[in-house]
Design goal:
It contains six helices and no strands. The protein is mostly helical.
Length: 145
């Protein structure tokens, strides 16, 4: 079974799924940093002065790490970065779920009105950790083309 997980096709599928999702997620946030900043602010987890920086930097990190995965560049590093982001997202959603706050996750769109159950958001992010673990564990250190 480990042979399957080490296989080039399996690694490519994990790279494309994870990288593609994060590339897609970054596009609207990059195009609308002001709206994304409002979403980040509504999480009420960081000081106001850090919100704008986070709203500008975070989508670019998602885009670059996603592109690197799709292109097969620095696969383990890119997967680790996206895995860390997923853990932060899981933590932020969990805190607001525990607080009972209504919030727009801002995951794929800054337009709002895409309210989903926080439990479903958590489950989705936990499932997205699977390709992260797969790539971290089985991807070779060299570049995958």
């Amino acid at each position: 079974m480990a042979g399957f997980f080490r296989s080039r096709p399996a690694l490519i599928v994990s790279r494309l799924i994870l990288g593609g999702i994060f590339i897609y997620a970054s596009i609207d946030k990059i195009a609308h940093p002001d709206q994304f900043a409002e979403i980040v602010y509504n999480y009420k987890l960081m000081p106001g002065m850090a919100v704008n920086i986070m709203a500008i930097v975070l989508p670019w990190v998602e885009l670059v790490a996603g592109l690197f995965l799709v292109l097969g560049i620095w696969v383990k590093d890119s997967a680790a970065i996206l895995g860390a982001l997923l853990l932060v997202f899981i933590g932020a959603i969990s805190v607001n779920l525990a607080r009972g706050l209504d919030f727009d996750c801002g995951c794929f769109s800054t337009a709002g009105g895409h309210e989903r159950s926080a439990i479903l958001l958590l489950l989705r992010d936990l499932v997205l950790l699977l390709p992260v673990v797969h790539l971290m564990w089985f991807a070779p250190k060299r570049r995958l083309a």
